[in-house]
What does this fold into?
Amino acid sequence: MRKDDRALSWEDFGITPVVRSKSELYSKSVSSQSQASCKSVPMDDDFQEMLVSAERYALGRMTYIVSLTVDYISPLIKSLDMKYINIMIDDITGHSDLGYGMDMDEEEWEKLLSRLRAEKERRTNGRHG
It folds into this structure.
């Protein structure tokens, strides 16, 4: 159990994703002291598929994993390929009949769904990058 309510960051896990866009500021936010123990992973298909796997695992769960998953995926949305944005949107909307878990879990999924849809809309209107 976490001692505080702050959202976990990649640095909490010793990982800084390598991204292809302006979101690279996340990789620069690691303090110089912790950079030696920091790992980088490419934002490739394998990593994006792992994010989808995490999202699918957490859907319908009634544990801390829901907020952890949403908090982890959210800052990466602008770097996700459209394919994975669409997959996550379909997964989350398709799960509504089964339920999202507790009320707080539903709020988390709605938050992620809203962010995914906003990014899709942004790209659809030609404002990508």
